[in-house]
Amino acid sequence: MPRANKFRHWAIRRISRLIMAKVVFHEGEEYKKIQFQFLISLLMMGGILSFIFIFLEVIGLNALGSTQFNSTLALFACSIGLLALIREDRRRYRPIAWTFEAACFLTFISAFIFVPQDELRVVWFYVNIPAAYILLGRFAGAAITLATLLTLPTVNHFMDTPLSRNALTTFSLSLIAVSIVFYAFTDRTIWFFKRMVASNRRLRDLAMRDPLTGLLNARAFYAVGDMLIKLARRNNAPFSMLFVDLDHFKSINDRYGHAVGDVVLRDFAASLARHVRKSDVVGRVGGEEFALLLPDTDQTGAVALAELLRRTTEAMIIRVGENTLSITASIGVATNAAHHRNIADIQKEADLAAYAAKRLGRNRVASFDGDCAMPLNA
């Protein structure tokens, strides 16, 4: 890679690290992340531009006067101080954004009053309006626009060299135009972002969910399960798995048809979901096979849940037209062991336990204990 490209990539990484610091944003917060990065960029720019104005005043190339020099110095200090605060805690975003907006507004008003020799000083108000909309939203942007439209003509009335009536009219109407453009832009941007987030969530659900039951599909179940097992091993916490296989499900399909079989699967999946904790992971891993990963659950807790699910399934009455069906399930239980490095290791043992439950007569719970599966109920 050429040296110039290496330097560019290095600079981009360093600036990104400087901007984001320790702040973490979660999925669905991309717009907040953009606002946060924009605020930090503005704080950096505010500090740099303030320093440039101060430097030009010191060397005599741009006259500010003592009052405006002090105002610019205060904006410089404010930008640096707020930059140090925002990089540590994202919860400070709104108060810091409002503080920076207020500091900029007061500095621009000060320039308008105390630097009359600068014919273009009103340009800074046009810069402030878009920043307010992006940082704080539509209503804040509209409020700052209104404050500018009320304050500037009032201040102008008492100045020794005020803006002409024509200039003031042009400034006001053009500022309103800028505000309307950014109000519409912000409104559409937020609307588009919300639509995008909702669409991404639907796509993710389609990719992760079994379309019939709404449970995690096999691929998603194994991916989430592997992450939870790694976390449990790191924290030295127990975990267990239930492997659930509906008894004689093929005969239901053969006798009543696949549409009835789908009703059975949906009702059974809903029953599973009602009886687990939010921290538990439930997936459909085969045609009539389901798996549950139970974090922070030892063998006693896993067996108790398995028996509850078995009894609940046995008591289910599934109505299909004028017919009523009863179903049962065979459930295998496996609890974490030293050799369980991933979900495949523990599922293999839970599957063996479920197979033993079927072999011993079905509609029962069996637990994998060492090298064999032990039946737990008659």
Any overview of this molecule?
The chain has 378 residues and is of the alpha+beta class. The protein has two domains: 3-202, no CATH class; 218-375, 2-Layer Sandwich (Alpha-Beta Plaits), CATH 3.30.70.270. 65% of the residues lie in helices and 11% in strands. It is built from twelve helices and eight strands. The chain has helices spanning 3-20, 30-58, 65-86, 93-114, 123-136, 138-157, 165-208, 218-234, 249-256, 258-274, 299-315, 343-359; strands at 239-246, 281-284, 289-295, 318-320, 323-325, 329-335, 365-369, 372-375. The strands form two sheets. It has a six-stranded mixed β-sheet with strand order 2-3-1-6-7-8, sandwiched between helices. A two-stranded antiparallel ribbon has the order 4-5. It is elongated, with a radius of gyration of 33 Å. The N and C termini lie far apart (70 Å). 29% of the residues are buried. The model has no long low-confidence stretch (mean pLDDT 88).
Topology, please?
Layout: H1 3-20, H2 30-58, H3 65-86, H4 93-114, H5 123-136, H6 138-157, H7 165-208, H8 218-234, E1 239-246, H9 249-256, H10 258-274, E2 281-284, E3 289-295, H11 299-315, E4 318-320, E5 323-325, E6 329-335, H12 343-359, E7 365-369, E8 372-375
Parallel strand pairs: 6-7
Antiparallel strand pairs: 1-3, 1-6, 2-3, 4-5, 7-8
The secondary-structure class comes to alpha+beta
Q: How many individual domains?
A: 2
Major sheet: order of its strands?
2-3-1-6-7-8
- What proportion of the residues is helical, as a percent range? 55-70%
The shape is: elongated
State the distance separating the first and last CA atoms: 70 Å
What Rg do the Cα atoms give?
Answer: 33 Å
The number of distinct β-strands equals: 8
- Biggest sheet character: 6 strands, mixed
The number of helical elements comes to: 12
